[in-house]
Backbone:
């Protein structure tokens, strides 16, 4: 196993080198990485403003630990996440973004007379999620990133056996203002094994302005939250799945520290089913493109909602047509989490 892992690590290092090193500049690897976010830097999250070093911090990069499985396991156990810069070769992530932007351009949703690769949003400002459009979301440039041999080898090594990924992939293209709200993934994709990981991959350059993913440090160890909200299954229990739309209460009421980063194409965050996360609204006029995918051991129980059925589609969430979902405010009162 360690031999396999070493091979993966060397391959990632090779590809990173190939992507970053140019003849005019031998040290692109470091130059290409965003500068450390300095203390006091403001972060706009909708109508809220946070400051780095106070209630928001920069994610810790675990890429130097890629050859140290026990250190990765420890980080995951203690911190609840792995942030791995350059996990996917940058060129592959950029190709996946270009492919997705091409699909958006075909819908006429890029600003006229601008280069496709710039991803400038048209006036209609439409957010796209290509979840069920498999001709886009399951095309080679996308799967070359999220189903790549190196990705699957990483999970085989990390999980300790043959690994699988869901058939459903969540390819998201946020227009201006587009974002998600705070949730645990357990509520959406938590049936079957609990030993399942989400990998959120940045495909475009996603800085503070572009709607970065934000996680809540400590939320993976909040037992009461995990045993109440975290134990719901939105489709079984018909409960609202979003826990909160308010980043301020994550900090003040729950005591979590927010964490984010300036993501480059190919950077990933990996976390388990019980890590509270959201994205901040995209404040720019450039599409923010990411993809989130799930991985688990092949021998453990799947969440059948997200695997192909005979007709080539999957059930997904919200399959109870016409159902009404119990409001989260009411549930939170019952749980004593209001
Ligand atoms: O990209 C986002 O804004 C949301 C991603 C997410 O919820 C996930 O990766 O599980
Ligand atoms: Fe999520």
Residues:
């Amino acid at each position: 196993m360690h031999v396999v892992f070493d091979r993966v690590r060397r391959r990632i290092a090779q590809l990173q080198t190939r992507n970053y090193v140019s003849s005019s500049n031998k040290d692109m690897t470091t130059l290409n990485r965003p500068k450390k976010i300095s203390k006091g830097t403001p972060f706009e999250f909708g109508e809220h403003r946070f400051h780095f070093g106070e209630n928001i911090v920069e994610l810790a990069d675990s890429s130097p630990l890629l050859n140290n499985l026990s250190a990765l396991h420890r980080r995951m156990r203690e911190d609840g996440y792995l942030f791995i810069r350059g996990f996917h070769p940058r060129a592959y992530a950029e190709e996946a973004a270009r492919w997705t932007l091409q699909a958006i351009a075909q819908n006429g949703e890029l600003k006229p007379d601008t280069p496709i690769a710039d991803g400038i949003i048209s006036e209609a400002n439409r957010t796209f999620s290509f979840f069920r459009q498999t001709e886009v979301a399951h095309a080679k440039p996308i799967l070359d990133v999220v189903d790549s041999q190196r990705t699957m080898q990483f999970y085989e090594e990390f999980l300790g056996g043959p690994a699988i990924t869901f058939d459903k992939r969540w390819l998201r293209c946020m227009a201006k203002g587009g974002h998600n709200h705070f949730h645990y993934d357990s509520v959406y994709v938590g049936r079957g094994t609990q030993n399942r990981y989400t990998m959120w991959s940045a495909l475009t350059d996603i800085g503070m302005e572009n709607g970065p993913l934000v996680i809540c440090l400590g939320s993976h160890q909040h037992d009461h939250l995990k045993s109440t909200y975290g134990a719901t299954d939105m489709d079984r229990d018909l409960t609202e799945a979003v826990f909160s739309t308010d980043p301020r209460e994550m900090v003040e009421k729950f005591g979590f520290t927010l964490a984010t980063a300036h993501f480059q194409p190919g950077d990933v965050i990996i976390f388990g089913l019980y890590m509270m996360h959201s994205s901040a609204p995209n404040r720019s006029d450039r599409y923010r493109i990411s993809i989130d995918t799930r991985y688990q051991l092949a021998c453990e129980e799947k969440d059948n909602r997200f695997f192909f059925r005979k007709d080539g589609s999957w059930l997904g969430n919200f399959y109870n047509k016409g159902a009404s979902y119990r409001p989260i405010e009411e549930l939170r009162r019952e749980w004593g989490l209001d």
User: Anything to note?
Assistant: The CA atoms of residues 82 and 250 lie 20 Å apart. Confidence is low (pLDDT under 50) at residues 15-30.
